# Entry
Amino acid sequence: MFYDVPFVSSPEMVVRRMLKLAQVKPGEIVYDLGAGDGRILFIAAREFGARAVGVEIRHNLVEQIKIKINKYGLNGKVRIIEGNFFDVDISEADVVTMYLLTSVNERLKPKLERELKNGVRIVSHDFEVPGWNPVRVDVVPDIWTTHKIYLYVK
Ligand SMILES: C[S@@+](CC[C@H](N)C(=O)[O-])C[C@H]1O[C@@H](n2cnc3c(N)ncnc32)[C@H](O)[C@@H]1O
# Structure
């Protein structure tokens, strides 16, 4: 099966910076497009008090996230949708997180512009959304590399 993006996790300290940069508040709805192992969802819910929704296409990752939701007692706080993020309604989001590819962000752009409310914050790890002006770009040093976090406000 073809997937748009490989599975690579954002380091947890980058996740915290992304959510902090987006000023996630308790009760807000955070969507992670391509949820991977769900770390953004769990940190958003446990540390920021958000309601987190992930969309993930790889079945084995979805199953792992479901197990963790039960293990951490986060039913009602974290939800995972198995499917293609191009097909999922994201209009309820207050914050959208992404760690994809510039080419995929470009393809997602019309959907984000169409579906998201005004004022929604979009944070993208390492890959910009072509043609959008970031409100802020943070550079996060890591052991072997640096990470960039792009913040956009619709
Ligand atoms: C680079 S990983 C990022 C994981 C997580 N968001 C993080 O930052 O740690 C990208 C994820 O997107 C998923 N993915 C790729 N194409 C997708 C699609 N069209 N719909 C839903 N998920 C997709 C992959 O399976 C992978 O788990």
Q: What stands out?
A: Strands lie at 29-33, 51-56, 78-82, 95-98, 121-125, 136-141, 146-153. The chain has one domain: 12-153. The longest strand covers residues 146-153. The CA atoms of residues 45 and 143 lie 27 Å apart.
